[in-house]
Amino acid sequence: FMQSLAHDQFVLLAVTLWAIWTARRKAIHEGIFQSPQATNSFVRRFIDELNMITVRSPTRNSAAPAMGQRAVRPKAPHAGFAKIHVDAGVRARKGGSAAAVCRDGQGNYLGSSALVVAGLEDPAILEAVACREALALAADLNLHNFVIASDSKQTVADISCGGKGRNGSIIQEINVRATLFQCNFSFEGCAANVEAHKLVKYSLSLGPGRHLWLGQPHDPSCIPPIVVFHK
């Protein structure tokens, strides 16, 4: 049966079985119960991260895209607005991280931050925390007009409609805080959210707490001083 599966199907099967086994083990040995939705979100998130690792160049100085291919650039914000990309991730038995990377309308780096939370491994909650972290970063940078871009459609939808699921209290806090700014929340795919994804991976190697980089990124080879937005 395994040999008849395509590679993508085999990866999906293996990750799903692993996630179910992990959830079952936590329920039996630790008394921690995870909903099927949380398990499914973890599987999809984990596979997305695997795909990003696969397509990423192994060298720091990336070559130009091959003929016929075009790099995916982040969308430009409206005139007079800054742009904050957010992402979240989990490291098994370590906890999770929610990260935000901010640039001005011309693509210049302004600042970034990451909140590492020990023991928190729920992707849906972490994605909401990442959007809240973007608001905190905007306050640190004294910004008032900005767009927050997330690669989680569900989180953006929850913020828009005031979702009341297990991340409902965070969604409510986000909507209250957002009234202090002129800001919008939008969905943008993983391919254009590479910087925030890299910051999540890096921050998971740090200790719990909030980490902040203003004016200068933690690693210019991962988060360059300037990027060109897609107009």
UniProtKB/TrEMBL annotation:
Occurrences of domain RNase H type-1 (ranges): 92-202
Signal peptide feature range: 1-25
Cell membrane found in the keyword field: no
GO molecular function, one term: RNA-DNA hybrid ribonuclease activity
Domain of life: Eukaryota
Pfam families named in the record: RVT_3 (PF13456)
Entry-linked InterPro entries: RNase_H-like_EbsB-rel, RNaseH_domain, RNaseH_sf
UniProtKB keywords: Signal
The protein's name in its UniProt record: RNase H type-1 domain-containing protein
Organism field: Aegilops tauschii subsp. strangulata
